[in-house]
Every structure is written in structure tokens, then in C-alpha cells.
Design a protein that fits this description.
By secondary structure, this protein is of the alpha/beta class. The chain has helices at 15-25, 27-42, 114-132, 149-158, 172-182, 195-198, 244-249, 257-263, 278-282, 304-318, 339-345; strands at residues 9-13, 54-57, 62-69, 73-81, 95-101, 107-112, 139-143, 164-168, 188-191, 204-207, 214-218, 228-231, 240-242, 251-254, 276-277, 296-299, 325-328. The chain has 2 domains: 10-115 and 305-345, ornithine cyclodeaminase, domain 1; 128-302, Rossmann fold, CATH 3.40.50. The protein binds nicotinamide-adenine-dinucleotide.
Length: 348
């Protein structure tokens, strides 16, 4: 366990420790906890430094840095998005992140964030759906049954009151995997053979597909009045999921407009197309759903403040546990100015 004298040792949460932490806390409880931390940080939205994430694009994917600070604590996430990776046995999305003390600049946490991103994305989706989805929504269509899909489904159950999920993926093996993983969780699962079949009777339509293309997962004629669309997979320039006509018919809610206009489904619309920032709805400053007929669309791309919240959650929850390793990440000479002497003394 770290002690205050170990300031130069940084707690590091490996993938294995993250998985143990999730099991220790319990997945539904952790999803609810993350949603609470995200809601808390969204309520302090104006205090944060905000910038669209810094993206390095290639033909195959993107590598991004996502920084933010509330003036006391600084955080960033490194994340990639490579849709073709899965055919080579690699993840589409991998991530790690860091939290630091603004006063000293010293890191206070380094952690894996591949698992954590799946949880925070799902917690954000469910927090938003709880606000925007039609009252009493119980059925969700889950289109795209890859790495995020079980987390999305279980968060919608833990936070959003969903009892039924209807799965569809162009790859039947992905649907079979997702259905098997959701067995015994309490969710009623139906495997479908088309997106049209999956959305039958659903009040929440989640799209979470990965293709570096202007894909149309939901066409205009598929979407009737009153549904909530949780659009997760369109999160990069040239990568979308929702037909522009649906975006024109619905009311669009986003995280941070300067980033979403570059990366979200709304990249297909005019730069001044009206959108509502979701933090304002959660804070009670702007209206969310105002009628039973309204189509609400959460054009999610994932914003740095959600990662900051997740990092804060992990920092708080590992305290007093064994779910981390102290990492020798920072040089710590006895005399702070004698870095060279420290090097000399280390000679064997
Ligand atoms: P993944 O590669 O594990 O799964 C994607 C699935 O989509 C695959 O099973 C694939 O077969 C399926 N698919 C592709 N085209 C389809 C189509 N036309 N119809 C139905 N299914 C289709 O990826 P993942 O980790 O689950 O991520 C999914 C998407 O979500 C990615 O684009 C990723 O960038 C994005 N994402 C967004 C956020 C956010 O905060 N908004 C966070 C994490 C991931």
C-alpha cells in the first residue's frame, strides 16, 4: 500500500487489476458509480478546460489524446480507433490514462483505460438515455455487437431501466458472443438477423458499429416518432452511422459541440445546425425530451471530462485496496536539483 512518503511512486492499475476492481465493486454498481461521477463533473462543466481532442489520423484509424483539467486535477487519455484491427485479432479501441495534481504537476494515477472506456461510455449513454428516452422505455435495439455492446446493454439495464435487448451485427458470430455474455444477467436477449428486425418495438436504438466510412446503420424510413437514438460508433471524421434525414427530423444532444461537429454524426450537417449540450439538460438549464413524438438523438463521440470522471472514480476506489502497483515513474533525488548525483549513485 502507498504511504504519503511515497509521493514519487505512482499507483498503476493494470488491466488485470482493473478487472479485479470491477468484480470487487460489482459491474452494475460500478456503472452507477461512474454515472454519478460523470453527472457530478457535468454539473461543474464551466470549470473545466475544454478542447476538441488532438487526433492523428491515418488511412486505417486514429490515435487521440484527450486532456482536461478542473484547475485542481489534470487528466488525459490516450486512445486509438482502428476498425480493421479485429480481423487481425486486435482491439478496435485501446486506451490508458493519467491523472495529475495541478499544484505539483505530479501524476497521482496511471491506469489502463480499455476496460474503463467501455464502462464510462456505457455509463454516459445510460445517464443520457435516462434523461432523454421515452418514459417507461424497456426495450433497446443494440446494433453492433462488438467490444462495447455488453457494457452498453448492462448500463442501460442498471441505470436506464431496460429489460429487453435486441441484438444485431453484420457478423452473426459477434451477436452470438454478445448473447452468450449477456445470458444470466437478467436481461431478456433476442438475437436478430437484420437492423430492421432489431429495432422492432424498441424505444432506444443504440448504434455501436465500427467502420471507417459514411455508413448508414439507420435509414430514414426505419426510425419512427418517439424513439431515443444512442449513436456511439460515429466518432471520427468520415465515420458516421445515422442518415442525415433522421438528424434533420430529431433533436440532437451532444457532449462538446466543437469536437462533435468534427467527429460526430452531425459532421454531415451544416456547421450551425442547432444542437443542445447534454450537460445543460442534466443541469436543468435546457429542455430534454419535450414530447412523446420527439426523436431524441445522443450523438456521442466521447469527451475528455467523462474520462476525467472515470479516472477520479478509480483513484477514489483503489485507495486502501491492493488493486494497483506502485510504479517507479518519477525520478526523486534527495536533493531535487541533484538529478545527476542520483544517476552517479545508481552506477553498479
Ligand atoms: P468492435 O470492432 O469491437 O465492434 C464493432 C462491431 O460493429 C463489429 O462486431 C462489427 O461486425 C459491427 N458492424 C460493423 N458494421 C456494421 C453494420 N453495418 N451493421 C451492424 N454491425 C456492424 O468496436 P467497439 O469497441 O465495440 O466500438 C464500436 C464503435 O464505438 C467504434 O466505432 C468506436 O470507435 C466507437 N466508440 C465510441 C465511444 C464513444 O464515447 N462514443 C467509445 C468507445 C467506442
Amino acid at each position: 500500500m502507498l504511504s504519503p512518503s511515497d509521493k514519487a511512486l505512482v499507483p498503476f492499475v493494470s488491466v488485470d487489476n482493473m478487472m479485479q476492481l470491477i468484480h470487487h465493486v460489482g459491474l452494475p454498481e460500478m456503472l452507477r458509480g461512474l454515472a454519478d461521477y460523470i453527472a457530478d463533473d457535468f454539473s461543474r462543466w464551466e470549470r473545466f478546460d475544454k478542447t476538441p481532442r488532438v487526433a492523428s489520423h491515418s488511412a486505417e484509424g486514429v490515435i487521440e489524446l484527450m486532456p482536461t483539467s478542473d484547475g485542481e486535477t489534470y487528466g488525459f487519455k490516450y486512445v486509438n480507433g482502428h476498425p480493421k484491427n479485429t480481423v487481425e485479432g486486435l482491439q478496435t479501441v485501446t486506451a490508458f490514462g493519467l491523472l495529475a495534481d495541478v499544484e505539483t504537476g505530479y501524476p497521482v494515477l496511471l491506469t489502463e483505460m480499455t476496460m474503463l472506456t467501455a464502462l464510462r461510455t456505457a455509463a454516459t449513454s445510460a445517464l443520457v438515455a435516462k434523461t432523454l428516452a421515452p418514459k417507461g422505455a424497456t426495450i433497446m435495439a443494440m446494433i453492433g455487437n462488438g467490444a462495447q455492446s455488453e457494457f452498453q446493454s448492462l448500463a442501460m439495464m442498471a441505470i436506464g431501466g431496460i429489460t429487453h435487448v435486441r441484438l444485431y451485427d453484420i457478423d452473426p458470430a459477434a451477436t452470438a458472443k454478445c448473447a452468450a455474455n449477456l445470458a444470466g444477467t437478467g436481461l431478456h436477449v433476442t438475437s436478430c438477423t437484420s437492423a430492421e428486425d432489431a429495432i422492432e418495438g424498441a424505444q432506444i436504438l443504440t448504434t455501436c458499429t465500427a467502420d471507417k466510412a459514411y455508413a448508414t446503420i439507420l435509414t430514414d424510413n426505419m426510425v419512427g416518432a418517439g424513439v431515443h437514438i444512442n449513436a456511439i460508433g460515429g466518432d471520427c471524421p468520415g465515420k458516421t452511422e445515422i442518415a442525415p434525414a433522421i438528424l434533420e427530423r430529431g433533436d440532437i444532444f451532444v457532449e462538446y459541440p466543437p469536437q462533435t461537429r468534427i467527429e460526430g454524426d452531425i459532421q454531415q450537417l451544416a456547421d450551425d445546425h442547432p444542437v443542445t449540450e447534454i450537460w445543460e439538460v442534466l443541469a436543468g438549464r435546457r429542455a430534454g425530451r419535450t414530447s412523446d413524438k420527439q426523436i431524441t438523438i445522443f450523438d456521442s463521440v466521447g469527451f475528455a471530462i467523462e474520462d476525467f470522471s472515470a479516472l477520479r472514480f478509480v483513484r477514489d476506489r483503489i485507495e486502501g485496496t491492493a488493486f494497483f502497483h506502485p510504479l517507479d515513474l518519477l525520478a526523486d533525488p534527495d536533493d531535487p536539483r541533484d538529478l545527476f548525483g542520483m544517476l552517479n549513485r545508481a552506477k553498479v
